[in-house]
Each structure stands twice: as structure tokens, then as C-alpha cells.
Design a protein that fits this description.
CATH topology of the largest domain: D-amino Acid Aminotransferase, Chain A, domain 1
CATH architecture of the largest domain: 2-Layer Sandwich
Bound molecules: ligand MV4
Strand content: 15-25%
Number of domains: 3
Largest sheet: 8 strands, antiparallel
Strand order of the largest sheet: 13-12-9-10-11-14-19-17
CATH class of the largest domain: Alpha Beta
Radius of gyration: 22 Å
Length: about 450
């Protein structure tokens, strides 16, 4: 096992990695920006190195600064967390060239999944179900129209370099194609420096369901079942749960088995998340793969009992999956996570400032992953995620009851948070019955708006 690991992140995920290292007897090195001098990841790591000014590009995204810190501190490995440098193939390559283990997949696997169209073809080759779509990049709007005629409207244009919904357009009729093609192309070029587009059949109001996989460096792969992430707003997830009520044991087994074969074929390593859309007929279709640990990983940890960050560290140190995982993976109970963001609950604008009052709920089956503390200051430069509240119950009803109780006891004053929004969602009948899709938040907010005007 590693003696010393650098954590190239901040906030709750930096603490999450530090905690795992601590419990495994690994020394930790934090890096931080000038805005994070008083942050908990700096306090809880064994060593901390300031790598630059507050702006991300000058600190947490500054590859030479991060690598220099790793060399000065003499670490054997870097854990990138999520976001920031976690899916940067170039960074993974620089780590390799510097003789530092990048705790994640090989650079080629990151690069493959970063090119959404190539990822699609790789999945297709391994018999993972994909949606009907274009074979490759669309050269012109006319070519797009030809494909759409074959596939059937509505179709969706997506950016090859995409993600997060940018450069995406739904096209419902041939006469819309030309305008939407050029709009998507321009948006993708602006956002990713690459305007290339591909096409898929559009699924209306899909569910978003993702499978967690782990792969060791000896060709072994395991599927750790799925998470349901349909409660989203503007491509930001708000609530995630595991397992999904819509995935039957048979479907879970089938997709899991196919993914294991696929990941072995690709030469995938470490933790990954394979995203699917589910249509009204409960069929799953691959859309993209994330090559990192995800924000919502704790719900999978709760129902499988597997510590995914420790698994990442052990895989990166060369251990085999059969020594990391129990002989038979079982799903126990139901887990739900609420992402608590520092933002105004109605305007959804970021809220920065000093925490005055702070109280966290506890009790059986309640977990909080957060880097907040009383009198702590939330800087305005970074992600608005400030805490994750995760509950684990015997079944979904118990998890919902636990979450409602825990939200009522979660007190954060001094800034605006999404706690009141979560409280309202947990009272919603549609949500409580599990009858929702990715259109839920839009309907929910429209309902809330209507009743506030009455
Ligand atoms: C889709 C889709 C419908 N059909 N692809 C949005 C972000 C990107 N990761 C994929 N997205 C979608 N892809 C096809 N073929 C609908 C969406 C989509 C969506 C997906 C998951 C969760 C929320 C969403 C909100 C709007 C659109």
C-alpha cells in the first residue's frame, strides 16, 4: 500500500479521501488555494501545501503546481476526487511521466470516454445497449437530416466533447434541423473548443440510472449495482438513491454482466460510472461514462457495504478485486442522498458567506459528508455543494422518513441552502411514490410556483 498520497481536491471530497487514507494508515498531503487557508482539508491532512491564488485555473487546476507539490512532499500517488483534474487524461499522463500513480483509470480510458461518440461505439461493440444514432460525427445539417429520417423524430444532437447538457439540442421535425444543428455546433465549439456533433434517438422524459463499476489492474471487473439520479435541475443532480425501484434483479444482473465484459475489453481500471437512460418500457440505453468517483458514491456504499474510496486506493496499489470485495455482493436496504447546495432556494443563485449556526443530524443510518464548520466561510470561487446528507433504511419508505427527520434537524444559518427545497420534495406524493423521471423538478417547481401565487 502507498505510504503517502496527495489529495488534489477541496471540500467534502478531499475530506472523504483523507478519511479513507487515515483509516488505512496512509499519510496525506493536502493542496489548497489562498481562499482555502482555513479549510478543513488543510487541517485534517498530515501536510498541506499552498498551490496558488483562489481562482481554479491558478490553483486546483494548475497541473505544474499540483505536480510540484507532489514532488516536494514526495508522495507515491495522487487522488483527484471528482471534478477538477479527475477526468483530465493529460493530467493522468503527466502523473505517469512523473512517476506518480494517478488513482483512476489509465489516460487512454479517460480519453476514450471523454469522446462521447467513441465511447458509444466502444459500448456497442461490447453489446451494451445503445440508442439508435449516427455512426460517427455529422459533417453537415443535411447529413443530420438524413440520419434523423432513418432514426425517426424526435432526435437529439449531442457534442462529441460534451457533457452537462451543453451543445445539446432536441430536434422534433426536419425543418428545425438546420437552425438547431448550427446552434448546437456553435455552443459546443464555444464550450469545449470542439463543435463536432453526433445524433441519438431522443427519449422523452427518461429516467437517469447509472451503474457503479470497479476494475482492478489484473483484468477483473465488478458491477456494484445502480443509482437512480432522475431528480435533477439544469443538469445538476439534487437527490440520488440506490437501488433504483425501476431496475429488476434480472435487468441489474444482465446489464452488470455486460458491463463487466465491456470494461475488461476496454482495459478499464479503478472506479467508473456508466450512465444510462431508461425509457417508458424500462429499457436501459448507454449514454456516457464518467471515469471518476462520483459525488453520489455514498448511496452505493450504504447498500453494498463497500468503501469505494478505499477500494480505489487498494486497486491503484495493485490489489486484486477478490481481496477487496466480499465473495457475494448483496444489496441491503435503500439509501438516499440529498445534495445541500449553498444557494438561494428560489433563485438558484450561489450564496457565499460565513456560517453562523451549524447543527448536523445524527442517528442510526444517517451520514453527512461535508467540510463545513461553525464560523467557517464559504468562498465564492468554487462549487456550491456544501454538504451531502445520506440516509440508509431497511426500505425506501424508511429511508424517506429518516431523510425528512434529518433534514428538519440540519441547521445551517448565515447562508442560503437548498435544505428547504429538499424538505418540500420529500413531502411530494409523486416523489414519495417513486413515480418520477428527469422531468420531475420542472413539474415540481411549476406546482410550487402555482400554489405560492394562489
Ligand atoms: C438524452 C436525453 C434524451 N434522449 N439523450 C442530458 C445531459 C447528458 N448527460 C445527457 N442528457 C440527455 N440525453 C437522448 N438520446 C435527455 C437528456 C436529458 C437528461 C438526462 C439525464 C438527466 C436529466 C436530463 C435533463 C434533460 C435532458
Amino acid at each position: 500500500m502507498f505510504r503517502k498520497v496527495l489529495v488534489a481536491n477541496r471540500g467534502e471530497i478531499a475530506l472523504r479521501v483523507i478519511n479513507a487514507c487515515r483509516e488505512m494508515g496512509i499519510r496525506t498531503v493536502a493542496v489548497y488555494s489562498e481562499a482555502d487557508r482555513n479549510a478543513l482539508h488543510v487541517r485534517f491532512a498530515d501536510e498541506a501545501i499552498c498551490i496558488g491564488p483562489p481562482r481554479l485555473a491558478e490553483s486546483y487546476l494548475n497541473i505544474p503546481a499540483v505536480i510540484s507539490a507532489a514532488e516536494i512532499a514526495d508522495v507515491e500517488a495522487i487522488h483527484p476526487g471528482y471534478g477538477l483534474l479527475s477526468e483530465n487524461a493529460n493530467f493522468a499522463e503527466v502523473c505517469r511521466a512523473s512517476n506518480i500513480k494517478f488513482i483512476g483509470p489509465p489516460p487512454d480510458a479517460i480519453r476514450l470516454m471523454g469522446e462521447k461518440e467513441k465511447a458509444r461505439q466502444a459500448m456497442k461493440k461490447a453489446h451494451v445497449p445503445i440508442l439508435p444514432g449516427s455512426d460517427g460525427i455529422l459533417a453537415t445539417a443535411e447529413e443530420a437530416q438524413d440520419w434523423a429520417k432513418k432514426i425517426g423524430y424526435p432526435v437529439i444532437l449531442k457534442a462529441k466533447a460534451g457533457g452537462g447538457g451543453r451543445g445539446m439540442r432536441i430536434v422534433r421535425a426536419p425543418e428545425e434541423m438546420s437552425n438547431l444543428f448550427h446552434a448546437a455546433n456553435a455552443e459546443a465549439a464555444g464550450a469545449f473548443g470542439n463543435g463536432e456533433l453526433y445524433m441519438e434517438k431522443c427519449i422523452e422524459n427518461p429516467r437517469h440510472i447509472e451503474f457503479q463499476v470497479l476494475a482492478d489492474e489484473h483484468g477483473n471487473v465488478a458491477s456494484l449495482s445502480e443509482r437512480e439520479c432522475s431528480i435533477q435541475r439544469r443538469h445538476q443532480k439534487l437527490i440520488e438513491e440506490a437501488p433504483s425501484l425501476q431496475v429488476s434483479p434480472k435487468l441489474r444482473e444482465e446489464i452488470g454482466r455486460t458491463l463487466c465484459r465491456c470494461m475488461a475489453e476496454i482495459g478499464y481500471q479503478n472506479s467508473g460510472t456508466v450512465e444510462f437512460l431508461m425509457d417508458q418500457d424500462h429499457h436501459l440505453y448507454f449514454i456516457e461514462m464518467n471515469t471518476r468517483i462520483q459525488v453520489e458514491h455514498p448511496v452505493t456504499e450504504a447498500v453494498t457495504g463497500v468503501d469505494l474510496v478505499k477500494a480505489q486506493l487498494r486497486i491503484a496499489a495493485g490489489e486484486r478485486l477478490d481481496s477487496i470485495l466480499p465473495p457475494r455482493l448483496e444489496i441491503r436496504g435503500h439509501a438516499i442522498e440529498c445534495r445541500v447546495n449553498a444557494e438561494h432556494p428560489e433563485k438558484f443563485t450561489p450564496s457565499a458567506g460565513r456560517i453562523t449556526t451549524f447543527h448536523v443530524p445524527g442517528g442510526n443510518g444517517v451520514r453527512i459528508d461535508s467540510a463545513l464548520y461553525a464560523e467557517g466561510v464559504i468562498p465564492p470561487y468554487y462549487d456550491s455543494l456544501i454538504a451531502k446528507l445520506i440516509v440508509h433504511g431497511r426500505d425506501r419508505a424508511e429511508a424517506i422518513a429518516k431523510m425528512s427527520r434529518a433534514l428538519d434537524q440540519f441547521i445551517i444559518e448565515g447562508i442560503h441552502t437548498t435544505i428547504p427545497l429538499h424538505q418540500a420534495i420529500f413531502q411530494d406524493e409523486e416523489f414519495r411514490e417513486g413515480k418520477f423521471d428527469t422531468g420531475f423538478m420542472e413539474r415540481f417547481l411549476a406546482k410550487a410556483n402555482r400554489s405560492s401565487k394562489e
